[in-house]
């Protein structure tokens, strides 16, 4: 039991005096007891979860009751009758608490022992430190006596440090001693408490003994009851088998009858099939005949079509000839007319052109009259339809009050009369007026411009008439009674009169403008006022211009004076000269009425309004034509700034529209803002500075293509007031004119007017309560465009509502437009008191009722009520009465009846949600005289009363007569209400648990029910279980099983293992017996699928199948048995910890550590907050931080923030091993039962042994295993808790040692023993085993030393009294393979300057699979090297005096340091890796005899390679070598003697520098009278120095001429050598003429080397002729 459980087993408290109080606390403890008293109460309120199984046990005892007659009377007497449930629970609680108290005592003992060990270790350390201090003081005295001050200072510092350590150890000793005393005191107190409860412990032991006896009696009684139930079950199975045989015979008879009926049916079907096929053939022949007839008809149609085409072509040719003849005739008539007019002196071209124009105008007039006529007819038909519609509505809505008529809404008849009056063509029509005007213009005009003016006038009039017709067609109302006809017709007539009057005024020359010069002059007695020339147009206007474009305008000047006049262009205004140019050719003298033309070209460069004039001079006087240039701008306005909705009833939805119109040519963005007041920054819509050209093009195209649609849509929306309708009519006309202007200016004008649509509009969507804005709250308004803005009033509560908002624009020059909206809402007179009737949870096919209360408040008369139920719910819901009358200021009650049927989900799909069962039905109460009906809602949750099994059939499978099969089913309550259930009329061989099949299911609860099947007779079972619910509904469950008698038999079907420790194993032996004989065969169910081949000697195959991932292993797991044989089966139980358990424990430990860490941090934080401020001398308060505050807790806290993922916790990790150790230490006891099936095959025929046998499922045997596991006494705490020691790969010849630590975690000492390892084994246990006490540890030292290249494995057993710990030892021997990159031999470093160094590197490559250790040895440092120069003496006594071979160890440094150094000296090379070996040559004096021997040796004493190191040193950078050996290669280690007088030595060095002798012997060979010249080579080199100042050098041979006389030649004689390089000098000797045989030629030549210093080598050349053969 963990100490951290919710129920604390005991409380430990320590007071200030150090006394320990231990209270044995159980659930029966009362508050009045003293610290050392216990009271136990029999009536406990609750039982802990770990003792809940006692309830079932005592319920069974209560069920058995008096029927248990076999109880032991002595036990009953001791127990005082029947034991109570509370007494048993008290016994288990006391046992648990006493065990925990004992555990606490052992823990205290362990703490005391641990403290003693620590005190002992501390005292040993103190003794050791005291001894060291005494030794150090004696050493200080000796050094003082020797007057060694350096050593004295060093020893004093050591003495000081040692004293500090000694002081700290003494303090630690005192602290440990105090803790030890405290621990011993607590241990004694716990021991006292334990002694107080010794009597209670004896009492508990006696109660446990009595409890075990009662439990055994209960088991015996249950076995007897099961035997009785088995006998009854056999009788029932016999009756069931007889019944099944009768049913089988009945089924056979029915099957025979069905076969006969099927044969007759097949004969009839064949007959009908033949008739059907015959009928299909006939239909196919008829279809083919129809297709042929249809094809003939098509052929005839094609032929007739060809003939018609030919006739049509002929008629077209005839018509073309007639048209051509008419055209020729007409052309001839025109020619004759032209000739006659020219003969009369009339301009024929002008006359004919005017005739064509008049004919064209008449044709257009006729077409226009036809269109007008057809439109009048359509309008009249529409009016008649509307009258019929109004009459029809009046008849249907007779009960509704009639709307009052006012002056603003005239009657329908009066509107009809006015409209017919307007459509009457009796007055003078517009066509006649237009013809009159054209005649006047044609008569007064004398130039070709008059005809163009007439065309413009005609087009303008056509446009006006077209606009009128379009307005009439678009402004057609939905209800003519709401249309104000007078205002519309009056306005149309006024606009028509104004347009005609404007055209007439343009022809009058007497109109003067304010910009023209007024001239008053008399001509021929007539007074002339105004300018002499009339400009058409009067003002040159360039409206809505864009910078960068060019605009042209044609102006006609007409002489309106009474005399012949002329005009001259003087120029334009000064500020317009850069933008406007005039193309004008003086026409000369112009008679009165004559006109001339000029063209004004405007090319703007700036975006601002311009005004000026074009000045002229005439004979009468000067005059001017005004010029106005305006840019594009926005002109925004709304039709109304105040919207009043009036009075409306709550629940209605009313909308009003506000029309926003842009009368300017500049587009802008708008947005609606409901803020109460606008700041200067938010009064305009923000627009980005950069505008996308593509967006502008899209907007312009949308504006140009959809303006007609917008205008038409804006006219026909909603119900408008008469004044608003008249305004909309004029706005439509203006919009259509703007469309024509936009199409005339082209897409470029629209492109210039568009703005960016990406506007950052800050819109406040908070509307004013019941008043809200429509969907259009922001957008783009184009030039000359109108947009409808909707305001919606949806009253929800009575009262006044108001909303104020502003329309903001992106144009800076446009101010926001405020809009005010007001409305008043009133409540309905009739309503339902409970608008939502909740029927709660209802079941299908049950009746539910509720009351509906209707209240009348403001009604003054009695009103009729009609309750309406939607058609979908009329089968399920009803309201009585359906109609009624409610009196004023009273209430009315109706009864609601709800009977849900099962078809509710199909009938009312939109009201009922079949998934959730929620039903929400809207109901309506129609009130006479109230427009809005009263709505209320009926809500309910409809559920079913079904109980559902998770499966419809339970198959117990094949079971033996000795087995009990348990199958679980899940019973679910699908209802939302609790239901009772019970299994009735159960067969004797079936049992239902829990509670014998009775219980109550909560809503949506699922209960798992165990069906226990146990039959004692071999046969097939098929039966049905009936479960009855509290609603008296039956739910059936079909069950079936096959009971067999297996052919094989187990000697023991139940195996009970002893308590086995985790990590150990237990083994038992059972026998599998084949009791079949030749005459006694196994009895199987009689059916065709399970019959065996009856043979005399046929073996049976068997196979055990243990559970997966279990602790059970069986050997042999499979085999064969002949009749009468038996097989020994070994069953092994190896308890272990599962990976899932270990990972869960790791997570628990993590959370526990995290919680402790958080608590510690909280304590530290609380301590830091309690800092005491200290006042300093300067008056400042400085906080004092405690010394024990920890700052380094941050990173650890961060590491514990996130829990590890269980998948990431791998075996071998620290968390995994900690969790495994925690489980082992806290492992209490585990009990598991396994059922292992043993499958048995059918007989194997002797004649066919290769055939695979059949495995019958009803031959299966079951082996029951009871496996208790306990805590191990001995655990491995090293090697990650693994008992397998893998030495891995080890080189042959090496020895690897590993240690394994075990710990005794039991409560008793363990005497350890080990098994005997193989004497010839490569594994060995190096230390002895001993007895270890509880909690102690012992380390096993194991060694592995392979001798061959192979794998080894052996098992070592560590035995104790309680368990055996098995350890597996394994390893592999590998032969090391290491190679060196240097082949061996000589490693020459060359020449080096003294006191400098040179380095060479070679590699060791490990190609084996294990790491190999190596060691590098130098002969000069070898301890086995002979001392005293013994090796040199052998060299000196050698006979070969001219040999170049040097001794192994040559010259050494004067300093005593080694000349050659190696790094590293030893190490290990990983598998497949390499190691660099660096050899450094560093001499300290000049010499050419430096040498040493380097040997590389592996850890198994094998040598990889051996090389001789060689090098030379010089004091100067230039050197010469290559001659004969003049002295022995052995030098003294003493430095050369120094002269006593330094001054004399310096003078002698300056006067005469010594030369270096070199001997070169040349031997010419003489063979058969022929002499071969002798050749030797010398090397001159320059050493590369680390000093950058030293460079190359030179060499020079002196007296080369004298050498040539003696036959010597030197090549080259002089030269240079770069630093780090060397040159070869070839010395050749050829005997000169007159050379005498056997003479020796000798000469001496100096060689000068110039480097950092100049050195002279004296080279002695000796030459002779040798006749000896090599």
Termini Cα gap: 100 Å
Strand content: 25-35%
Low-confidence stretches: 1-48, 60-81, 399-416, 418-493, 495-520, 687-767, 1079-1096, 1174-1200, 1432-1445, 1537-1551
Q: Tell me about the biggest sheet?
A: 6 strands, mixed
Your description of this structure?
- The structure is a single chain.
- With 1670 residues, the protein is of the alpha+beta class.
- Helix content is 32%, strand content 31%.
- The protein contains 20 helices and 80 strands.
- The strands form 20 sheets. Strands 41, 42, 44, 46, 50 and 51 form a six-stranded mixed sheet that branches.
- The radius of gyration is 64 Å and the shape is extended.
Task: Lay out the secondary structure.
Layout: E1 10-14, E2 20-24, H1 53-64, H2 73-79, H3 85-145, H4 149-196, H5 198-344, H6 348-396, H7 412-423, H8 430-444, H9 448-474, H10 485-506, E3 520-523, E4 526-529, E5 533-536, E6 540-545, E7 551-559, E8 567-572, E9 580-583, E10 595-602, E11 610-618, E12 623-631, E13 636-638, E14 642-649, E15 654-662, E16 668-673, H11 693-715, H12 722-745, H13 747-753, E17 771-773, E18 778-781, E19 785-793, E20 799-809, E21 817-826, E22 830-832, E23 836-843, E24 848-856, E25 863-868, E26 877-880, E27 883-886, E28 891-898, H14 904-907, E29 918-927, E30 934-943, E31 947-949, E32 953-960, E33 965-973, E34 979-984, E35 990-993, E36 998-1001, E37 1006-1013, E38 1020-1029, E39 1034-1044, E40 1048-1050, E41 1054-1056, E42 1060-1061, E43 1066-1074, E44 1100-1104, E45 1112-1115, E46 1118-1121, E47 1126-1133, H15 1139-1169, E48 1172-1175, E49 1181-1184, H16 1194-1199, H17 1214-1226, E50 1229-1240, E51 1261-1270, E52 1274-1276, E53 1284-1291, E54 1296-1304, E55 1310-1311, E56 1313-1314, E57 1323-1325, E58 1331-1332, E59 1337-1344, E60 1351-1359, E61 1364-1374, E62 1378-1380, E63 1385-1393, ...
Parallel strand pairs: 6-12, 14-21, 23-30, 32-39, 41-51, 42-51, 53-61, 63-70, 72-80
Antiparallel strand pairs: 1-2, 3-4, 5-7, 7-10, 8-11, 9-10, 11-12, 13-15, 15-19, 16-18, 16-20, 17-19, 20-21, 22-24, 24-28, 25-27, 25-29, 26-28, 29-30, 31-33, 33-37, 34-36, 34-38, 35-37, 38-39, 40-43, 43-47, 44-46, 44-50, 45-47, 48-49, 50-51, 52-54, 54-59, 55-58, 56-60, 57-59, 60-61, 62-64, 64-68, ...
Helix pairs in contact: 3-4, 3-5, 6-7, 6-9, 8-9, 9-10, 11-12, 11-13, 15-17
